[in-house]
Prior knowledge:
The chain is α/β, with parallel strands linked by helices. It is 40% helix and 21% strand. The strands form two sheets. A seven-stranded mixed sheet has the order 3-2-1-4-5-9-6, sandwiched between helices. It is globular, with a radius of gyration of 18 Å.
Amino acid sequence: xxxxxxxxxxDLQADEDAYREALSRFLAGTDEKTTTHAYLQRIVExxxxxxxxxxxxxxxxxxTRHLAPYFERTVCIEPSESMRRALTLACPQAQVxxxxxxxxxxxxxxxxxxxxxxxxxxxxxxxxxxVSRIMQWLAPGGLLLVLLQNPDETCMRxxxxxxxxxxxxRELADELAALPPGLIGSITVDTVPARYRSRDxxxxxxxxxxHLSLPDRxxxxxxxxxxxxxxxxxxxxxxxxxxxxxxxxxxxxxxL
Length: 256
């Protein structure tokens, strides 16, 4: 059976399985979840209400599972079938919406919405529309957190080197600030540190290639990625380090 654009369903599954394997390798070597979860917990503890959590692009539910116990209800948007299966196991209590953001229907008014590392896969011209759509699902005074890697750190410099792409939430902040008043209130940008370490060259190359696997971009050769890793990611102690600090765009909906 064929999938979208004539791609075989088996090929789609293989691609998703390979993505999940690469993601697992990356997460095993990085402190990202530790630093991010600590940051998110501080945010949650400061919320005036914790009725509904909305996780947009929840993936396998690792972060959703961490945050869900603080809320009365959890709603997730996750278009990937394989990720939805993992998400359901991780957060069986969550309501899961399968459609992409711009087509999704969400019956909720969230106190906190999370859009974590999703915009890499959204066309740049749709960023503001995507955020505006999510803002409509926030309760008055609700908060949206948008996470992407800092474009000035090692990982995103590597992505720019190979693809020419640059993902900068500060540009999105300026676009949102220029929208008509009513939906967008305060906008701030935080930085959350993150670092991947490994002493295994092959694994580091696989993790680098994972970050370079972006829609509509041809992947560089393994030789090119390995050469880049050897030149730019050595830590001077026989291992490799990839800095990937995160920017967090905090967008608050005005209170009534």
